[in-house]
Structures are given as structure tokens and as C-alpha cells.
Amino acid sequence: RLDNVWGVGGGQRPVKHLVKEMNLLLREYLLSGEVSEAEHCLRELEVPHFHHELVYEAVVMVLEGSGEGPVAMMVTLLKVLWETGLVTLDQMNRGFQRVYEELGDISLDVPLAHSLLERLVELCFDRGIITKALRDACP
């Protein structure tokens, strides 16, 4: 049971390494568009308790990116991860809440972050990825 919760070897790696791996996974996904490969890479990391970090990094990547392509792609990825159960409701909420809390700092680098986040949150809500409560909590 513990292996299912914490992963067999993933919990032994430093957080910085895991964050770096998740960023690489997301960048590769944006280049290739292969959802199944991104899903496979996330499973290989063996850190199901840390999947909220992927949600956080995905949303920040969308805010810092440009164009509609990354927005649609990340919504698709989050939808698949949500439907397969790789990202739980709690992890989805934690990832988005962290972005909400850091939006002031993110806005310093990305002046349009508020409107981009609002659009992303609305898309995620429309696709059934996030709850109404989480949508309404968006700053």
C-alpha cells in the first residue's frame, strides 16, 4: 500500500530534481503533443503524492508562455491526467491554489497573468477538470 501511495523509488529523490523532471516532461509535451508519453513519464517518476507540483508547473508555464496553443494543450493534458486518476482532486486544488497565492509575484514578470489565469481556469472548469469552488476562488 505504501508503494502505491509514495511510489517505490520516487520519494528518495530530492524535490529540486523532481521539479526539474516535471518541467522537462511538460516542455517535451508542448513540443511533441503526445499525451500518452507525458502520462507515462509522470508515472515513471513514481511520486503520486507530488503530482500537485505538475499542476502548478503546468499552469505557470501557460501563464509565462505565449499563444493559444500551450493553453489548449495544457488543458488537454490536465483533463487526461484528471480522468486517469493520476492527478486527484486534492492535487488539482493544491496546484491551482499555489498559483493563486503566487499570482502577485507572477504578475511582476507577466503583466497579463490575471487575465490568462482567468481564461485558463474558465476552460478547465468548462472541461470538468476543476470544481466550481476552485473556479470561484480564482483571484
From TrEMBL:
Domain MI span(s) in chain numbering: 17-139
InterPro entries: ARM-type_fold, Initiation_fac_eIF4g_MI, PDCD4
Matches recorded under SMART domains: MA3 (SM00544)
Subcellular location, record wording: Cytoplasm
An annotated GO BP: negative regulation of DNA-templated transcription
GO CC, one annotated term: nucleus
Principal subcellular localisation of the protein: cytoplasm
Keywords of the record: Cytoplasm, Nucleus, Repeat
Pfam annotation, one family: MA3
Similarity-based family: Belongs to the PDCD4 family.
Protein name: PDCD4 protein
Organism: Himantopus himantopus (Black-winged stilt)
Name of the gene this protein is made from: Pdcd4_0
